[in-house]
Structures are given as structure tokens and as C-alpha cells.
Design goal:
This protein has helices at 3-11, 22-31, 36-43, 47-55, 62-86. By secondary structure, it is an all-alpha fold. The chain has a single domain, classed as 434 Repressor (Amino-terminal Domain), CATH 1.10.260. Helix 1 (3-11) packs antiparallel against helix 5, helix 2 (22-31) packs across helix 4 and helix 2 packs across helix 5 (62-86). This is Helix-turn-helix transcriptional regulator.
């Protein structure tokens, strides 16, 4: 299963979570080397929408925020796993 598949699978979960601050969301995505366009595709929004969220210009809907939080968590775990293997 690829990182993209994992993100998509976890983004489909319906667990309520709190989002990190916008700048932290952007850092998580960039650390995972996922473009805003790719993340938007996974979440069913445009890359521009993801960038607006990351700048704090707009807030995701409740449904999207759950999927976004799950995707961010999956990206954090993936980055941690890569760093662990590289160490």
C-alpha cells in the first residue's frame, strides 16, 4: 500500500479530531513531500483550497476537517517511519 493509498484510506474515516494550526498543517504536508494538488485530490477539493486552509484564509467544513486531520496524521506517521528507517 502506497502513502497515497494510506492517506486516502485514513481520510475516509469519520473520527472527530482537532486540526493543528494552519502553518503546522502546511509543514506536515511538505515534510511528507505531498503537493497541495495531490492532497486536494485525495480530499476531494482543489489544491488551491488546501493552500487556503494552510494559510488560514478558509476553514474546511466539518466533514472535510475530519478527513484532513486523518490525512495529516497519516503523513506524520509516514514521515516518522521514513526517518526511523533512515536512522
Amino acid at each position: 500500500m502506497t502513502i497515497t493509498d494510506q492517506i486516502a484510506e485514513l481520510a475516509a474515516a469519520s473520527v472527530s479530531v482537532k486540526l493543528p494550526p494552519p502553518a503546522k498543517c502546511r509543514k506536515i504536508r511538505r515534510d511528507a513531500k505531498i503537493s497541495s494538488e495531490k492532497l486536494g485530490q485525495i480530499l476531494g477539493v482543489s489544491g488551491q483550497t488546501v493552500r487556503y486552509w494552510e494559510k488560514g484564509v478558509r476553514q474546511p467544513s466539518r466533514e472535510r476537517s475530519v478527513k484532513y486531520a486523518e490525512a495529516l496524521e497519516a503523513m506524520k506517521r509516514a514521515v516518522a517511519a521514513v526517518r526511523e528507517v533512515a536512522a
